[in-house]
Amino acid sequence: MGKEQMPRDFFWGNSVSSMQTEGAWQEDGKGLSVYDIRPETATTMNWHDAIDEYHRYEEDLDLMQTMHMNMYRVQISWSRVCPDGDGNFNEAGLAYYDRLIDAMLERQIEPMICLYHFDMPLKLAEKYNGLISRTVMAAFVRFSEMVVRRYADKVKYWLTFNEHNLYFTDEVFEISGYMHGNRSLSDMYRIFHHTMLAHAQVDKFIHDNYSDLKIGGMLAFAACYPATSKPEDVFANRQIDEFLNHNLNSAFANGRYSNEVMQYVANHHIDWDFQAGDELILSAQKADFLAFSYYRTDTINADKIPSDAAPNRYLNFGNEKNRFLTANEWQWTIDPLGFRNVIATLFSRYGVPIFPVENGIGWRESWNGKDMVVDDYRIAYHQSHIQAMKDAMFVDGAKVLGYLGWGLIDIPSSHADMEKRYGVVYVNRTNHDLKDLKRVPKKSFYWLQKVLADNGNNL
Ligand code: BG6
Question: Are the CB atoms for 50 and 412 separated by under 8 Å?
Fold first, then answer.
């Protein structure tokens, strides 16, 4: 086999959410989201400033351009462009995204837009309890269609819900605007179903109206191993894959949920608000690509799972240490072969292009004000994962559209904590001290710049 060359139109870039980057939580008419009212604690920050990209996007885009990135995945904050979630749209908020997108295009950086990343407009959470309500589902579709219409001539790549399978786990109650209720399995399945219906409607809207736009479903792919070769471990592992991966990808790519999940719902009399007409809505979608985030793998021990647990909840109980893998401080394993496995599996199952849109390693780092942060562990992580992706492409035959690292200019972790950083650029702030928010390239910045200059052909 000769040395394979990466496709010329391959995307390399960075990926973020709005609440983890923008700041400006009350500027230019932005409404509140559920994140904006989360209090600062001893170990976490508030979400008011993030890394202040709202005012520093030119500088951040310059850094991305210097690294030869040609894609930036950003989110359009629902509460910034529609302060009440379902009322009037806010021109001043939209004007920010006009400027941001134009600034990307000026630098030959292709925008990818994600429409929802956990930050429900507060009004919709308070009034309707978030996405458990069909009113909120409809409001999301209305917001999405407005955004697609506005940017269709400039933005070709679209995602709806970040890490869509989290809406089928207990995290759903934190990320869907759910403010009260008994967190029952029915509530979980109901919210999940509404988000899938919303996605299908946005998918159909895009395909009915724009032939050059592409939309994909996006998962936090549940990459998991059985703890042993014991049949119960292997079976539980397969169920996790069925419920948390295949059930969604089957809907995104083929327009229907997994039979096994449908059977589970029927057997357990789960009330998930499946109405007449929903099947038709689901069947109208056709993903142009399948996107996912990947950081680590988990390991499942069936002995630890209560016999009455729903398979989509297994990972709450059975996650074991994997003695074959090293991990970071937060016990997130480092597993490049797992990454190759996800890409190869997805392409082989669904036959549509695959797009890893989040990958990276969190590490505790500080800057002494003068020397470069030396992050060889991050270089090793990205190098091994990019190589694994190339193996999936050139050995396993998968079609991959691009590779986006997560938070490559430092942002707070999803738990509102600057102690866990993913960047190849250091951002000078801590949880409780905004300092000067200076952007300082780490050693991995120069490594990535060299790799991308050559389109990833030499690692
Ligand atoms: C994903 C989310 O779960 O992983 C991001 O899309 C998050 O919002 C990222 O920041 C990394 O997780 P964490 O908890 O380390 O920030």
Answer: yes
| Catalytic residue of the set 163, 171, 232, 260 | 163
In a domain, 205, yes or no: yes
Per-residue pLDDT tens over the stretch 91-127: 999 999 999 999 999 999 999 999 999 999 999 999 9
- Look at residue 150 and tell me if it is in a domain: yes
CB-CB contact of 189 with 272 (8 Å): yes
358 carries an active-site annotation: yes
The tally of domains found in the chain comes to: 1
Helix axes 247-254, 336-350, angle to 10 degrees: 40
**Ligand 1 neighbours (beta carbon < 6 A):** 17, 162-163, 220, 293, 358, 362, 406, 413-415, 420
Atom in ligand 1 nearest the alpha carbon of residue 414: 16
User: How far apart are the CA of 157 and the centre of ligand 1, in A?
Assistant: 21
Closest-CA residue, ligand 1 atom 7, reads 414
Residue 257 lies in a domain: no
For the question of an ipTM over 0.90, the answer is: yes
For 73-96, write each residue's pLDDT tens digit. 999 999 999 999 999 999 999 999
Mean pLDDT of 430-441: 98
Q: State which of 162, 163, 330, 406 you would mutate to test the pocket of ligand 1, scoring each by most atoms of that ligand within 8 A of its C-beta.
A: 406
Helices (H), 298-335: none
Print the domain residue range for 442.
11-218+334-453
pLDDT tens digits for range 367-405: 999 999 999 999 999 999 999 999 999 999 999 999 999
Give residue 279 CA to ligand 1 midpoint distance, Å: 32
Nearest in space to 111 (alpha carbons), one of 25, 13, 24, 36: 13
Say which residue the tokens 């102690």 belong to.
419
CATH number of residue 17's parent domain? 3.20.20.80
Domain annotation covers residue 310: no
